[in-house]
Amino acid sequence: MEETPRSVGEASTTNFVPAETRPSAKKDAVTMKGCGFANLAWVGVDREELRGRLAMPEYLRLAMRDCIKRKDSTAVPDHLLLLPGGAAAEMAPHAPMVVFINPKSGGRHGPVLKQRLQQLMTDEQVFDLTEVKPHEFVRYGLACLETLAAKGDECARECREKMRIMVAGGDGTVGWVLGCLGELHNDGKSHIPPVGVIPLGTGNDLSRSFSWGGSFPFAWRSAMKRTLHRATLGTVSRLDSWKIVVSMPSGEVVDPPYSLKPTTEETALDQALDADKDVPPKAKSYEGVFYNYFSIGMDAQVAYGFHHLRNEKPYLAQGPVTNKLIYSSYSCTQGWFCTPCVSNPSLRGLRNIMKIHIKKANCSEWEEIHVPKSVRSIVVLNLYNYGSGRHPWGNLRPKYLEKRGFVEAHCDDGLIEIFGLKQGWHASFVMAEIISAKHIAQAAAIRFELRGGDWKNAFLQMDGEPWKQPMKSDYSTFVEIKKVPFQSLMINGE
Known about the structure:
Elements (H helix, E strand, L loop, with lengths): L26 H7 L13 H8 L3 H13 L26 E5 L8 H11 L5 E3 L5 H17 L3 H9 L1 E6 L1 H16 L8 E5 L5 H5 L10 H14 L2 E4 L2 E8 L11 E2 L2 H10 L8 E8 L2 E5 H15 L7 H13 L21 E6 L7 E3 L7 E5 L16 H7 L11 E6 L2 H8 L6 E6 L1 E6 L6 E6 L2 E6 L6 E7 L4 E4 L3
Parallel strand pairs: 1-2, 1-3, 3-4
Antiparallel strand pairs: 5-19, 6-8, 6-18, 7-8, 9-12, 9-16, 10-11, 10-15, 12-13, 13-14, 15-18, 16-17
């Protein structure tokens, strides 16, 4: 049975705030947020009071850490239960919280930020992602609380039900944590922890979309206290996530990002058969989940080149501003802004190698849509923000929406937007919000078919992670995007 996207603005429970009804920040607050002075009413938060709202009892903190270390959610040493308070603790903190921090993000702010967070909370509730992975916390840390709760520990039960998570990192780090929390949905668990963001990345579009700001604050030491306080009070909104399956002829060599995982050959073959195209004797596939965007074309090619340049010369990665300057300079050398009259086929329009089929809302049939001739990059966008807070889809007027059969775009409406960029100059005007991107479609599911010929490779990326995709002229490569059945929960920073 086809899943019906929720109508725009629908919320499944009054405890959640739909994305389109979240209050907008005042202009002066937005101005000060980038400098770490947003919402001055919270400047006077007492440090010890904040710690009391966040810190779990010592026996629970140590039990979680021990279970994660042993990779066994039932391995709770008896001596921990005999600590003061122990299993007889009567009161759980108002807002038990853990923080995941990516020390490689934020222009080397990671280590000192970790120390500051440990001062404001406790050492055991701050997790370094180079030491403890999110899936380990989900499988052994949260499961430890569930084990204790099943034994009658009310404090453990309340901490598990009230748990909130903050992620200090970029959009990729946030997506990693959200993906691991998705395991709880698959296991049929209730009380999924909502996630807030401390922006340490380059674009920080997830952070911007939920009012956590677009950059690491200048006065970061005092800002961290206010950020944690806001995280205890923020309302919770829903975020769509999208599953991507890349199916290709067997034998092709591809170096996918870590967020794409190989699946069985049967899965890939089923995808190809369902498409009713020329099916290779064998096929293989990769699958993953994205929260912000997926793209094919020149922008992904530039991102791929920049990604490898930074890996080869890590001293270039000195922070978000430096990254953006290098990225902009690198894009000028790839033919994105100026394509010679006699050029490599890889610099021409995507319609030479691509077909797009979509399923619209409340429709079970695939429909082929036209690929504009001049488009050299196609972006599938879930969030309102893209490319460091830009809005390429634009604020479309009701008459235009009605004419195109679109609805107002939101990150929790079960639909995803598809738009095109023609070349670097067009993309620059779109990013400057002088014009809107080339609107192509809104869809509840998408299937791209890529076929080689003069093109030997295509370049793809999702949520900032690019890869080179080899193509055959005999058989097609399919990229299918469908909505994940459950939604992620995000804490609003306002």
